[in-house]
Design brief:
The protein is an alpha/beta fold. Strands 1, 2, 3, 4, 5, 6, 7, 8 and 9 form a 9-stranded mixed β-sheet that branches. The chain has a 4-stranded antiparallel β-sheet with strand order 10-11-12-13, with helices on one face. 31% of the residues lie in helices and 17% in strands. Strand 11 and strand 12 form a beta hairpin.
Length: 473
């Protein structure tokens, strides 16, 4: 049984349109462009959540957050006991399982963080390994490595670099945008890329390999090494899509994100916690750093793909995607909290199958819950209960009729033309209906328009049925 190796590469908070293969003219991402030219390249791939933890747990289980138990970045919730994972199933099937970089499968101890010290993290590491990982090289997020001792921060301390890294992470004056204080080879994304390249290049076991290479960039803080700034042509950067007065109505989900005091990630760093108070110069610096970090990640992906080709050969399933996107100043905000905008929900997805090298552009809707079934089928292992399908199989069926996005007190549904978003939290109650055909930039809430009543009813019914299958079965 000649089963393929499987290499999954993800970037954190990566916009689809930030890659040159998806149309970005401000930078070139030649290694991902080359992979795209040999892959199924999906235009309508959707994450399961705008938050890191529920999205990642959906990828690793093939189940939507309400079905796997892990639905919040912030409260103590983890995968329901006994839920199969990519690691456990592939390991059981004879694969060597490995992770390089960010996991975030349980909440970080945000409330325990300290400005003057880095704290233990062994409980997280033990839990991650319990999911079925044979080998783990942990860099659990740019800020996490300043707060807690993952494998990366331990090495930083050995190099005498941790204090400078931690000081930059806590410096509020930067508003989360600054050049990395580290030599570029010690930036977290370089560390992850190097660990993965070295591991794959030296892999000598007979077992097929599953490797998840999980870059924590370009997630904020926007901290690219300054050496990469010259790769960004800001004159060619896409203009921010904004509409004057979009959030004047207090019933809009992101009214406070823009006007303050908001809860979206970008509000925390903004004057008066209002994203409207950022200057054009700030948005330019943020975007430059974001794109520069992507150039850096693409460079390391090129080295990893070269190692895969040399060591593992053509019998390898390669998948690239992101856990979610980033607003990047569109609608005048940055971050992803409570966001069902296409900027955050619609992510890049490339899948190169063993023995196939002809690129195909795919327009059918797929979800990141399809990754686990795809990997298990490629590994010739039996399927497990999930909310996904093998990518080729679901494309052959015309794609998912609806895609779903979930998180704590948050749910969204889209059929590709209409989108319904609902937020139900103790002090946040919102509902929006967006017409993607007439309003592709998603500026206008048409939930009270009688002409859209039938669309609203249909999407609400489908969303209710989704949750009833689990909660009231």
């Amino acid at each position: 049984m000649n089963r393929p190796h499987i290499v999954l590469i993800t970037a954190d908070e990566l916009r689809k349109d930030s890659l040159s293969c998806y149309g970005n003219e401000a930078i070139r991402t030649p290694n991902l462009d080359e992979l795209a030219g040999e892959s199924l390249m999906f235009d309508r791939a959707y994450t399961s959540s705008p938050w890191c933890l529920p999205s990642r747990c959906a990828i690793v289980t093939g189940r939507l957050p309400h079905n796997n138990g892990a639905y919040s970045n912030f409260r103590e919730c983890r995968l329901d006991e006994g839920v199969p994972t990519l690691f456990s199933e592939l390991k059981r099937g004879g694969y060597r399982t490995s992770v390089f970089g960010k996991c975030h499968f349980i909440p970080v101890n945000y409330g325990e963080t300290r400005k003057d010290r880095t704290l233990p993290y062994e409980e997280h590491r033990r839990y991650y390994r319990s999911l079925g990982m044979d080998d783990l090289y942990l860099q659990d997020g740019k800020l996490v490595s300043a707060w807690h001792y993952d494998d990366y921060s331990v090495e930083l301390e050995d190099q005498g670099l941790l204090e400078a890294y931690r000081a930059a992470a806590w410096d509020k004056a930067t508003q989360k945008v600054y050049p990395s204080p580290l030599p570029k080879e010690w930036h977290p994304d370089s560390w992850v890329g190097r660990k993965a390249e070295e591991y794959i290049s030296s892999y000598d076991k007979e077992d097929p390999l599953f490797a998840w290479v999980s870059f924590s960039g370009p997630h904020y803080p926007f901290d690219a090494p300054a050496e990469y700034y010259g790769h960004v042509n800001m004159d060619l950067a896409r203009k921010r899509e904004v509409k004057q007065g979009e959030f004047d109505d207090a019933s809009r989900i992101h009214h406070t994100s823009y006007h303050g005091p908001g809860r979206i990630d970008g509000s925390a760093a903004a004057p008066d916690r209002a994203c409207k108070n950022y200057t054009d110069e700030y948005w330019r610096r943020l975007t430059r750093n974001y794109y520069a970090n992507i150039v850096q990640i693409d460079e390391w992906i090129g080295r990893i793909l070269a190692a895969v080709k040399k060591k593992l050969g053509d019998n390898t399933l390669l998948i690239f995607t992101a856990d979610h996107g980033e607003m990047l100043g569109h609608h005048g905000i940055w971050g992803k909290y409570n966001c069902a905008y296409e900027d955050v929900w619609n992510v890049p997805l490339l899948a190169r199958y063993p023995g196939e090298s002809a690129g195909v552009r795919v327009n059918e809707k797929v979800m990141l819950t399809d990754i686990m079934p795809t990997c298990l089928k490629a590994a010739q292992l039996p399927p497990v209960p999930s909310d996904g399908f093998d990518l080729k199989d679901i494309v052959a069926q015309g794609g998912h009729p609806y895609v779903f996005c979930e998180g704590e007190g948050f749910a969204a549904i889209s059929d590709g033309e209409m989108k319904y978003v609902q937020v139900n939290k103790p002090d946040e109650r919102f509902a929006e209906l967006l017409d993607l055909r007439q309003d592709p930039h998603e500026f206008d809430n048409v939930i009270d328009d009688p002409a859209h009543a039938a669309h609203l009813c249909r999407l609400q019914r489908e969303l209710t049925e989704l949750f009833m299958r689990k909660l009231l079965a």
